[in-house]
Design goal:
This protein is α/β, with parallel strands linked by helices. The chain has 12 helices and 20 strands. The strands form 4 sheets. It has an 8-stranded parallel beta barrel with strand order 13-14-15-16-17-18-19-20. The protein has a 5-stranded antiparallel beta sheet with strand order 1-2-3-8-5, with helices on one face. Bound molecules: ligand IDC.
């Protein structure tokens, strides 16, 4: 995700070379479907289908049925719901994308296990005409194989910023992918509480984060209690919107964090969350760089209650911004349940009923060690994870940096391509802060002179 346009262009060309398209067209004045292989590897590929409405009136739902040769199955889909019967896989709307206006289209994607391409296609029950499918798998290149690296899609502006290179993100299987379908790992920093450290988030500090630290991601932590949103909803909404604009101007992904902590039941703030996310998602609907984190750290509350909250807040965001990635906090201070004696199994067996969703995992390196790493590795095989907050110190946010544990975490997150944001890009007088006290008022963000031990570790890691 660093600014290396030449390398990224080469990767983009490799992906383009590995792409094959089959076109299923219906006569004019009907629904159409276009099938594209957006990535492929030894024994599988990623497919994308665009359903178009060529009629002069809106259609209220759609159904695509693909028949695959024996030996090839569909593992996962996004932006669609799947069901299988024999060799035929049926894709129906994810919920928010059922209606297609006249002349408009919608897309969904899937991961195929096996290399066989579809042999037939139906759109809304009618045979697609003019079906052509490549008889052999798309040529696979080493750089477009099982774990693709970040790349630009040919049509994406490559001004060199993270958003310019990667565009609109989406969840693909258990990973976060860029607009062209390659897995990406975002690295960046979290604010501290906006109510306490407003002077840390200025044009100057964000220039340093974007251009010197080469970060991809800026997490905007808006506390709800402790003097936060509940005390001044319109003021905090404006502050968040302003910071999203600053991130956007620098090509950074903005992670909007509804920072619930005490009380730990997100439903306590359900109506506030609905209002906040309705306003913020409406304001930024046309942007490609906004990711929504709807509940920082649920605690003392069941997974069922968190899931219920998520399933009420997500549709509000999706009504404005259908393709935004949403991150849902997990039980036990976003520990996947581990800190309250549970595990990720409760999520895996009962996931949030929405597509394009990831689950938050938080750790503090001096407190959360090998057993937490093992759980992350286990969970990451089944569900998409995003480390929306972590510290190099203890869970109090203070104390000494645990360099060994932090590096063990970095190695794991890099290997699994899990995105992360570090707590905090602030000058709080606590071990987790990246800057020494006084830095923000002095405006001395550049270079290494104002960094704490944690800040130096993070700057090196993110710049690398
Ligand atoms: C801590 C801050 C601290 C502040 C406290 C208030 O570092 O200055 O007084 O919140 O609630 C989390 C939370 C995050 C905590 C952080 C460190 O998401 O709000 O910040 N932490 O304790 N989860 C685990 C650790």
């Amino acid at each position: 995700m660093k600014r290396r346009p030449k390398v990224l262009l080469a990767a983009a060309l490799a992906v383009a070379a590995a792409t094959a398209t089959a076109f299923f067209a219906l006569p004019a004045g009907a629904e159409t479907a276009t099938f594209t292989v957006t990535n492929s590897w030894n024994n599988g590929y990623q497919g994308q289908v665009t359903v178009g409405n060529d009629t002069s009136s809106s259609i209220s739902t759609w159904k695509v049925e693909l028949t695959l040769p024996a030996g090839t199955t569909v593992g996962q889909a996004w932006n669609a719901t799947i069901s299988s019967a024999g060799n035929t896989v049926t894709f129906t709307p994810a919920g928010w994308n059922a209606t297609i206006a006249a002349g408009a289209s919608t897309s969904f994607g899937f991961i195929a296990n096996g290399s066989g391409r579809p042999t037939s296609c139906l759109v809304n029950g009618k045979a697609c005409t003019g079906v052509t499918t490549p008889s052999s798998p798309a040529a696979s290149s080493p750089s477009a194989s099982a774990s693709p690296s970040a790349s630009a899609s040919p049509g994406t502006p490559t001004s060199g910023t993270p958003v310019g290179v990667n565009g609109q993100l989406r969840v693909c299987g258990t990973k976060l992918c860029n607009e062209s379908g390659s897995a990406v790992q975002l690295k960046g920093m979290s604010t501290h509480g906006l109510q306490w450290f407003p002077s840390c988030y200025t044009d100057a500090s964000l220039d340093v984060l974007a251009n010197e630290w080469n970060a991809d991601l800026f997490r905007i932590s808006m506390y709800v209690q402790e003097g936060g949103y509940e005390t001044n909803p319109s003021g905090f909404t404006a502050q968040v919107n302003n910071l999203v604009e600053k991130a956007t101007a620098r090509g950074l992904y903005a992670l909007v964090d509804f920072h619930i902590l005490t009380p730990g039941d997100p439903n306590f703030n359900l109506e506030r969350a609905k209002t906040f996310f309705r306003e913020v998602s409406a304001r930024h609907a046309s942007k490609k760089n906004v990711i929504y984190e709807i509940a920082n750290e649920p605690n003392g509350v069941s997974w069922a209650q968190i899931k219920s909250y998520a399933e009420q807040v997500i549709p509000i965001i999706r009504a404005n911004d259908p393709d935004a990635v949403v991150v849902v906090g997990s039980r036990g201070w976003s520990s996947l349940g581990v800190s309250e004696g549970g595990s990720s199994s409760e999520i895996i067996s009962n996931p949030v009923n929405a597509s394009n969703v990831m689950y938050a995992f938080h750790f503090y390196a001096a407190s959360h060690q090998a057993n937490y790493r093992a759980e992350v590795e286990r969970a990451a095989a089944s569900i998409p994870l995003f480390v929306t907050e972590f510290g190099t110190v203890s869970y109090t946010g203070d104390g000494a940096v645990d360099v060994a544990s932090t590096n063990a975490w970095f190695d794991l997150l890099d290997r699994l391509k899990i995105s992360y944001a570090n707590w905090t890009y602030s000058d709080a007088s606590e071990g987790s802060a990246a800057f020494r006290p006084g830095t923000c008022n002095a405006g001395s963000f550049a270079g290494t002179g104002s960094l704490t031990e944690s800040g130096a570790l993070l700057r090196n890691r993110i710049r690398a």
